[in-house]
Amino acid sequence: MPVLQIEGVTKRYDRTLAVNDISFSVASGRLFGLLGPNGAGKTTSIRMITYITTPDEGRVLFQGKPVGTWSQDRMGYMPEERGLYKKMKIGEQLIFMAELKGLSPSEARKQVRYWLERFGASDWANKKTEELSKGMQQKVQFISTIAHNPDLIILDEPFSGLDPVNAELLREVILELKNIGKTILFASHRMEQVEQMCDDICLIAHGKAVLTGSLREIKRSFGRNTVEVEFEGSDEWITQAGGLHGISVKARTRNRAELVIAQEAQAQKILQMAIGAGVAIIRYELMEPSLNEIFIRTVASDTPPSTSNFVAS
């Protein structure tokens, strides 16, 4: 049984249709990406999952039962709009929040101590929120999300505003949690982050789910459409190849080229042209499209391939 099931959910605000008949499920132990541009309906969907608001149509099930106040303590939710008490000390605040979620005072202190140490932030415990930088506050918010050991972790744009070092640290911790069996729902408009981390996705555009399922199977269904070639020799053949029907040059440097093809069979033609031009091939690879390319193609056509409804396992 999936940890989370979204079944035909629709949400309106006055005349605005924020979420339009969305369905997806999140399996236990998976890292699920809810992705789409800003305003697509991701945060509205999360607010229905966390029972902050309710759907006008459809239903949200957590552990097989309709969500309610009972399910809120079993989830950890890090909203995009961060919310900490500015005048309260970090240690006291985190312990207080963990106790609100059901931990005993001793267990709350233990968990807060562990996570502050994990983030190299033990010396923050006696500092007030207002004394910390935005990035530091974001790590504190993350600790408050996971300290009570929730069954489902929900992260809305968790990397927003983080510098590269702290973003990598947070990424490591998220993957550690996934590796010990935690179920994680990760909302983002950053396709490359989702592609690097997630097992399954639901891609939302204009309030509708346009692509849902296993990321691996989705990418496979779109076929391999990019040829990457590293070579030594003249690069004149690249221009010639890019002029052929169904082939375009995506990127090129003196000894490297990426070409997009309409059909996989054209990859062989590119290789033949390079060899025929007398260049030495160092590396030749036929690659799947990036998630960002898939998103653009899907939203532009608004008709994903028939394999786009894979059941996330």
Structural notes for this entry:
By secondary structure, the protein is an alpha/beta fold. The model is unreliable at 303-313 (pLDDT under 50). It is 35% helix and 29% strand. 34% of the residues are buried. The chain is built from 11 helices and 14 strands. The strands form 3 sheets. A 6-stranded mixed β-sheet has the order 6-7-8-3-9-10, with helices on both faces. The chain has a 4-stranded antiparallel β-sheet with strand order 2-1-4-5, covered by helices on one side. A 4-stranded antiparallel β-sheet has the order 12-13-11-14, covered by helices on one side. It has 2 domains: 4-214, P-loop containing nucleotide triphosphate hydrolases (Rossmann fold); 224-287, Alpha-Beta Plaits (2-Layer Sandwich).
Q: How far apart, in Å, are the first and last alpha carbons?
A: 10 Å
> Mean pLDDT, rounded to whole units?
90
> What percentage of amino acids are in beta strands?
25-35%
Q: Any idea how many domains?
A: 2
- Characterize the largest beta sheet: strand count, sense, and whether it forms a barrel: 6 strands, mixed
Topology, number of strands: 14
The CATH architecture of the largest domain comes to 3-Layer(aba) Sandwich
Radius of gyration, CA atoms, in whole angstroms: 23 Å
CATH topology of the largest domain: Rossmann fold
**CATH class term of the largest domain:** Alpha Beta
| Estimated helix fraction | 25-40%
With helices defined by DSSP (H or I, 4 residues minimum), what is the helix count? 11
Following the backbone from N to C, one meets helices and strands in this order, namely: EEEHEEHEHHHEHEHEEHEHEEHEH
Shape: globular
| Major beta sheet, strand line-up | 6-7-8-3-9-10
Going by CATH, what is the homologous superfamily of the largest domain?
A: P-loop containing nucleotide triphosphate hydrolases
Pairing-aware structural class of the strands and helices?
A: alpha/beta
Poorly predicted ranges: 303-313
